[in-house]
Amino acid sequence: MKEEYSKAKPLLDAALTHITQLIESTFKDLGDPDLIRARIDKARIKSVPSLQRKAKAHGWSNDEVLEKTSDLVGHRVVCHNLQDVERAADFLEKAISANGINVNRNDFTENARKGGYRAVHLDIKLPVQIGPAKMDVGCEIQIRSLLQHAWAELSRADIYTREEEIDPMLLKSMEKLSTELHSADATADHIRTEIAQPREGKPPETEAELNGPTLAFIYRRAFGADPPDYLIQSMIGEFAGTKIRSDGLEALIKNTTFMKRLKATYHKQFNWDPYPEQLFRWVVYAAVRGTKSALRLARREGKSDWEEVDAVYRREVRSE
Question: Are 15 and 128 in contact (CB under 8 A)?
């Protein structure tokens, strides 16, 4: 095992460096600390003893364990809240895929793994080559909340690194603690969403202005497709210099009652549903000027669109 590991080590080091740089640049490109509040905690390469235990547990040979281990290289991202976990996983998954690397996502936040472990895993096989030597390195990015990170550190220190058998009741207690912390995470998420909600007449403040990548990311999460470039450029021009909390913007989009009111307000004037681009612009307007102002804007634009269509219709009738 030591000989095989020694040969593979330079490739593993290169994979660790590559994934670290990818994670750092991905968060840097987002440009808005309010959307994803997270830190890159640590990166590691599995040790020889750890791989030996894994090979023994699975009945793998020395060559097979290097090939089949999905977390030869491991990275960890620790987020403030569950919504940060979800956003970080979405953003990293998209960034990795954009680099031509296949990503396998496993979400254990709602349904914990045996023992109580909760996190999102992004598993990839990273092709690495140095001279004639090459291999597909199994890399794993763990993304978890602060509370679940604390649970994982406690459980590892107190239970899972012990050689002797652990009382099953203690294991059950750790699972119960994980569930209680998950409930606390949900409460913290609710508090954050309420705080981030824009209030009429007082737009929330942030340290960063909205930028193209942030707007495009929120749009894609809301509507399942990348926004047209003209929309992003238009909104940056329209709201240049305006400070908006991006998590507050996303909270508005997830507010189904408000979104239904926007659609209904426009539909009442135009008798047609608005396009996603229109909805998104109104939501950004709501984050800046308040929800009532956004509803008035949707009403005005619905009326204007109807008047334009009606005018065209009348011109066509007269020409006939």
Answer: yes
